[in-house]
Please model this.
Amino acid sequence: MTRTIAYEAATASSRVGLWWMAVGIGLTALYTLVFVITGYHGPVVDAVVWALCNAAPHVLLAIPLVDRLGPRLLRTRLNRAVGVAVLTSLVYAAVAYGATIFLLALTSRIETDGLFVRFFQGPAVVWQSFQALAYAALALTAGMLIDARRAMAPLSAARSTPPACRNWLVRTPDGIVPIDPRELIRVEAEGDYVRIVLPQRTILSRIGLGDCAERLVDLPFLRVHRSHLVNSDAIVRAEPAGNGRIQLQLKNGDQVITSRDGARLVRSASI
Model:
């Protein structure tokens, strides 16, 4: 069990690592393409190196924003979340700018006694700042969306999974009888008893119609009359019965006339 959990955790970490590697490669390729399109005529290797210097800081800085800070913003008050997002984006832009020029200095081919640092000037400064702020906003948004999707996953699974349904142990005059409530066609109040109608048999029990309704809340049963519960999956046809009522033809051949409230319930359940 412990080994299985550890293996699953390692597999998940590997997938995340590969995903971020793919992001880094894609961003580097995009920067290389931009350099080529905007008139760079030097060696392709230099273009790739410069592209990597631009892409690497953004990938490394985006990881904690996506994995940590973005999800936390969803659990923070709106005014505080906006303030944190703005401050984080400004810090991100400053750090990304410094890291980019530092990496470019490390990879410079100009022979000097030390690092050859060239700061961005003019429109390049505006562009670097804009893209850094955009990347920060994108990383925070991605983190919030991923966390929201994780939070919604259990709810989606619960909606798509049919409710667990156990057999009933019904006390009858002849003893205790197990039945599958999903097989019920209808339940009818009959004096001190209820008549439980199944495809092949009918059972009398003192369980009570109200108790049956509570037990069948997760199944497609309609209270079509104060004395009748009907499985909507067992309805073959519905016809007007006059005075606002409906006559239901069930798959076992039974016919049930609804009340006016029951007729409205049947109509509201139809599509």
